Amino acid sequence: MKKIRPPVIFISIILLIVLAFIYFALDLPSRSKAVPLLVGAITIGLIVLQILLETVPTLSKRLNVKVDLFSEKIENAKKKQEKEQKRPIDQNEDQVKRFLDIWIWITVLAIGVFLIGYLVALPIFIFLFYLIRGDCKWPIALGITFIFWVAIYFTFEVVLHAGLYKGIITTFITN
Amino acid sequence: MFDAVLTGLAYLLSIKVILLMILGSFIGMIFGFLPGLGGTIALAIFIPFTFGMPINMSFAFLLGMHSSVMFGGSISAILFNVPGTSQNIATCFDGYPMSQKGEAAKAIGIAGTSSLLGGLFGALVLAVSLPIIRPFIMAFGPAEFFMLTVFGLSMIALLTAGTIIKGLIAGGLGLLTSFIGLDYITGSPRYTFGNLGLWEGINFIPAVIGLFAIAQMIDLYIQGGSIAQRDIVKTGSSVLDGIKETFFRWSMVLRGSAIGSFIGMIPGLGGTVANILAYGHAMQTTKEPEEMGKGNPDGIVGPEAANNAKEGGALIPTLAFGIPGSEGMAILLGAFVMIGVVPGPEMVTKHADIVYMLVFIVAIGNIIATGIGLLSANQLQKLTVLPGKQLIPIILAICMLGSFVARGRFSDVLVALIFAILGYYMKKFGYSKAAFIIALVLGTLFERYYHVANRLYGSWFFLKRPIALFLLILVIISITLPFVKSKKRNSWGNIS
Q1: For B239-280, how does the pLDDT look when each residue is reduced to its tens digit (9 = 90+)?
Q2: Which pLDDT score is estimated for B47?
Q3: Which end of chain B is more exposed for a tag (fewer CB within 10 A), N or C?
Q4: Strand (E) positions, B181-298?
């Protein structure tokens, strides 16, 4: 079975999102849905065209949809960039690993902020990131974390009275 | 009049006032640098500190601070692809690529000098046009505002040269996203799914932070290394080159400043629109179009001159009619009333000295901010050679804070993360993030002014109003001109 290429998967997801926009617009009052439906319909047409271009390579040549706005310099620069971006397969696998790795860090940070708030979650995140991924010695990681914590506490709590999000656990405990 | 100018200047000739302006400029730059804060929040926080101060001192501090925010925002946009304020968004498009090429100091030099010149231009426009501007501003209504948003949206086609379908898809998605929230015309919620937090729509700040900053940090982590390579920075150019480069592009400075002042004068559009329109204009007129989005100085000069010139322009309706030209000006208007000066038509006749004092504050505030920024540019550039792994946690933490503090809602952090995923894949598969963000900013205004103009003047409103018609012609010219130029160039190439 032929493998579906990542750009096709991405544009298909965008197609589903735009279809959802159109579907949920149908129940709106006529004045409210007019512009979203119009924009949605045009976007769907463009997405279908893009999917065809991605899946049928000969079509792109036949339609000649490249808009040569500023001479061929742009196309040449793009080709050069694409050439530079082509990597061996093992390097791509490494990229997927790194992508998952950073997303785990970001997700854990977001969950941490949600549970224990900014003033606790951010310093823990920074300390652990420097220690585990930043290859820093723990006194340096601790020092940077402390300086950052003092800076955000002073700026947002003391000066701005911004009332940083405290997290559901912290709020539960303090109440 | 000359007496009023001298009296206005005399108000500022005191050590205390100058020190307050320096303090204000410094605070303004910090508020601009940190995403999610910006000038409006800075003014709201510091207005209470000016209670009881004489008018010259309070406005030296407040307006000095407000004038410096833009340049502060451009520094984080250039160094980390994190626009400090929504009005620096276009600075990311070419500022960050310059940093990647090891030219961060030069880019800051360009941004600083353009901001300064734009600010001075705005102050000059304010001084000269205030007594005569009334009929011009009154000539603008919903039909003209609609055509201005169309003009902004037409930039999407230019921003996506070479991959126009992908660019238009990104623009369409941005427009659809801008429709999330309460419909201003019918009052019915759209795509909110019963969530009250979505009634105000998608907040621009977390969307930009996710789309540009977090997505960029993910990319930096995956690619490894640093923003710029150490050896490139060593041989790269300095802040002085940036200053020279800006003066070399004086025509772009003037045009960007004119766009900024013009947009500033019209209440309801704001600095983000000015910034985007100036970028679009730079794209159309630059001599190196193939370099746009890859570190073309014109992509910084135009937008930065525009967003700072806008401040002078925004003071015009604020002072002349008491109608604030921007959110920041609305807060300043409150400060005026608090002090006992009521802006309006009499401002020019009865309080001309105060008007000229404000002109001088805008001008001097910009000079101070640029001085601070340019002096620190070479040091700031060193941040771009720090290993990504040491920069990423701090930037991510600031992004998380910035997404939250804009409205004080945790849901905005989730919005930033969703847009980060979108931004990462948009970049990976060649969809224009700039087109998406332009549509997101202008979408709401586009729809609102369309409905209001339609109701006021009928379906063919853009043909019935002379200025709207003129703007329509401008839109058509601006879209077709690059195509015509390109065709001409190609046919000449074939002949030769």
Answers
A1: 888 888 889 999 999 999 999 888 887 766 677 778 888 888
A2: 76
A3: C
A4: 181-182, 189-190
pLDDT in tens, A105-157: 999 999 999 999 999 999 999 999 999 988 888 899 999 999 999 988 887 88
- The whole-number pLDDT of residue A88 equals 53
For chain A, what are the domain ranges?
Answer: 1-66, 90-174
Cα–Cα distance between A112 and B413 in angstroms, integer?
12
Q: How far is CA B262 from the centre of its chain?
A: 13
DSSP state of B180: -
Under 8 Å between Cβ of A165 and B409: no
- Position B496 scores a pLDDT of 41
Instruction: Quote the DSSP letter at residue B171.
Output: H
Residue A37 in contact with partner chain B when CB distance is under 8 A = no
Tell me if chain A has a CB within 8 Å of the CB of B191: yes
Q: Does A108 touch chain B (CB under 8 A)?
A: no
Q: Do B397 and A125 touch (CB under 8 A)?
A: yes
Q: Which of the residues B100, B169, B216 would you substitute to probe the A interface, choosing the one with the greatest number of A C-beta atoms within 10 Å?
A: B169
B chain contacts of residue A146, beta-carbon cutoff 8 Å: none
Interface predicted TM-score (ipTM) of this complex, two decimals: 0.84
CA angle B168, B171, B175 (to 5 degrees): 140
Q: Which residues pair with B189 in a beta bridge?
A: B182
The answer to whether the CB atoms of B221 and A7 lie below 8 A apart is: no
Query: What kind and span of H or E run contains B9?
Result: helix B2-10
Q: Is B83 helix (H, G, I), strand (E, B) or coil?
A: coil
| Minimum CA–CA partner of B418 in chain A | A107
Q: Is the pTM here over 0.80, yes or no?
A: no
Contact state of A69 with B486 under an 8 Å Cβ cutoff? yes
Instruction: State whether residue A36 sits within 8 Å of chain B by CB.
Output: yes
Tell me which residue of B44, B83, B201, B403 sits closest to A164, measured CA to CA. Answer: B403
Q: What is the 3-state secondary structure (H, E, C) of chain A?
A: CCCCCHHHHHHHHHHHHHHHHHHHHCCCCHHHHHHHHHHHHHHHHHHHHHHHHHHCHHHHHHHCCCCCCCCCHHHHHHHHHHHHHCCCHHHHHHHHHHHHHHHHHHHHHHHHHHHHCHHHHHHHHHHHHHHHCCCCCHHHHHHHHHHHHHHHHHHHHHHCCCCCCCCHHHHHHHC
Q: Do B405 and A162 touch (CB under 8 A)?
A: yes
Among A24, A33, A35, A87, the residue to mutate for chain B (most B Cβ within 10 A) = A35
Report chain A residues whose CB lies below 8 A from the CB of B482: 69-70
Nearest C-alpha of chain A: how many angstroms from B138? 28
Q: How far is A1 from chain B (nearest CA, A)?
A: 23
Residue A113 near chain B (CB below 8 Å): yes
Determine whether the interchain pair A39/B172 forms a contact, defined as Cβ–Cβ distance below 8 Å: yes
Nearest-by-CA chain A residue for B390: A134
Q: How far is B88 from chain A (nearest CA, A)?
A: 22
Tell me how far apart the alpha carbons of residues A44 and A39 are, in angstroms, rounded to a whole number: 9
Q: B387 has which bridge partners?
A: B226
- Cα separation, B70 vs B282, in Å, equals 19
Record: contact B404-A66, CB cut-off 8 A: no
